[in-house]
Amino acid sequence: MLGVSTRLAPFGTTIFSEMTALALKHGAVNLAQGFPDFDGPEFARVSLADAVAQGHNQYGPMPGAPVLRRAIAADFAARAGVQTDPDREITVTCGCTEAIAAVMLGLINPGDEVVLFEPFYDSYRAAVAMAGGVARFVALRPPRSDGPGAFEFDEAELRAAFTPRTKMILVNTPHNPTGKVFTRAELQLIAELCVHHGVVAVADEVYEHLVFEPNLPHLHLASFEGMRKRTITLSSLGKTFSYTGWKIGWAIAPEGLTAGIRAAHQFLTFSPAHPMQHAAAALIPAGAPAIAELVALLRSNREFLAGVLREIGLRVFMPAGTYFIMADHSGLDRKNPKLAGLTAGDDRAFCRWLTEHVGVAAIPPSVFYDRPELGHHLARFAFVKKRATLEESARRLRSSFGIAG
Ligand code: GLN
Q: What is the dihedral of CA 278, 205, 290, 324, to 10 degrees?
């Protein structure tokens, strides 16, 4: 009998499916898997219905519907200041997750090294492994102070991760799960290392619009000196417009790199759902008000959830971007009888306990590390929820931890 291939066996089932299933089973509020419990702008649903009615119901072109690729190019030029040719340099994928797989399968040869920051979004490592690549890890460590966006890497550790076999570095900014927004100085260093070592950078910018600190704006790696020709910029519709189920993502890359991406993409999905692409093309140029509204909600939700997590005794690392909060549970008062049976320093046990006994689901971040011990004291909470949903989590958390309010 066949089982899971040796390439994929180490990765098990993704934590998102596992925790969402557990949340459903226990009727828990799902602050685990990151998706909104509301829809994006209504006009986009009307555009989608129109696209279906107008007959965009057969396969779209393999690189993506031209109207959508033009919209992506115009938007990227306006925001990043980087001009791209939509015919030769943009590929529309089935969400950013497919783009990550297409990048690795289309450009990485067995034995090539790829530098990843840990914690990392779980598909990165699996995609490197599917391509036969070798991942090298650089840790993002929690800050000593509570300041925003302050997970940090060690410059020497990053420099040491580059070897003669390094072909690629993957930079996710704003960063899931830490909420870190990479600073200009950090991106400058990464850019210099890429240029020096002749390495390609993959910038996963799916949370590019979701930033909260005026002094920490999102910066596009492709706009740094020497990076235009060696950067693959990935983004998607899902996070920006609260349509995660539409699965529309894209890769922007110079022609030679795009050739590799398309070589894989044509055999992975060929192209994502065609009507969605037409609706996306209408949404992107008209989406600014919806984005502003979402960011305002997230900014206020961030404060609210951070406050509740602090009340129950967690140390909160305030995110500068994304819709996730990382919090340290190692300081919880275990003498509190309400916490009976809870093992210290085990994020899986903590998140299962929260889901089963408190009714609030979170993600145990150790699964996002090569060195899981770096994440054992943490838990990740998503705050892309209606305020009423967060208030319900607050009620459950406060009552389980014996706090009036
Ligand atoms: N990106 C989302 C998260 O981090 C989940 C993606 C998924 O479910 N595969 O929670």
A: 130
- The closest alpha carbon to 185, from 152, 136, 232, 160, belongs to 152
SS3 248: strand
Alpha-carbon span 7 to 133, nearest angstrom: 11
> What pLDDT sits at residue 129?
97
d(CA 336, CA 332): 9
Residue 304 in contact with ligand 1 by CB distance below 6 A: no
Q: What pLDDT is stored for residue 332 in this prediction?
A: 85
For 97-115, the pLDDT digits (tens) are 999 999 999 999 999 999 9
Residue 180 has a pLDDT of: 96
* Ligand 1 mutation target, pool 97, 120, 121, most atoms within 8 A of CB: 121
Q: Measuring from atom 10 of ligand 1, which residue has the nearest CA?
A: 34
- Whether the upstream peptide bond of residue 148 has omega within 30° of 0, thus cis, is no
Query: In the structure, what pLDDT confidence band is assigned to residue 405 with cuts at 50, 70 and 90?
Result: low
Tokens 């007959």 — which residue?
Answer: 55
Name the residue among 183, 345, 175, 351 with its Cα closest to residue 191.
Answer: 183
pLDDT tens-digit map of 145-198: 655 557 999 999 999 999 999 999 999 999 999 999 999 999 999 999 999 999
Rounded distance, CA 203 to CA 227, Å? 11
Task: Please state the atom number of ligand 1 nearest to the C-alpha of residue 17.
Answer: 8
The answer to whether residues 380 and 350 touch, using CB atoms and an 8 Å cutoff, is no
Q: What is the radius of gyration, based on Cα positions, of the chain?
A: 21
> With contact defined as beta carbons under 8 Å apart, do 271 and 101 qualify?
no
CA distance 351 to 360: 9
* Cα angle for residues 127, 132, 138 (degrees, 5° grid): 65
16 CA: nearest ligand 1 atom = 8
